[in-house]
Specification:
92 residues, mainly alpha, 39% helix
């Protein structure tokens, strides 16, 4: 089950933002005590990653952090929005 956390993280990074991204993940198995992810595992990491990327982009473009988000939110008329990713349950 350890590989599910990075998988969920990668498929939820886009969130409500229109973006193109490329990710590389390295999963390492060790001889440590096994653990199982809890409900929602991977989502906090995804939200942190996307929010950090937007903050850095706003800084680089010299835009307000709220403005960069407003410009890139998925519009209500664009739902359901296909991000082109498949979840752990094999669904878009």
């Amino acid at each position: 089950m350890g590989v599910i956390v990075p998988f969920i993280t990668l498929t939820t990074i886009p969130g409500p933002i229109i973006c193109q991204l490329r990710c590389r993940v390295t999963v390492v198995y060790t001889n440590r005590v096994p653990v199982t992810p809890h409900r929602g595992a991977g989502r906090p990491q995804a939200v942190f990653s996307m929010e950090r990327m937007l903050d850095r982009l706003a800084l680089e473009l010299k835009l307000d952090q709220a403005e960069i988000r407003r410009r890139n939110y998925i519009g209500a008329d664009e739902f359901p929005y296909d991000v082109g990713l498949i979840s752990a349950t094999a669904r878009p």
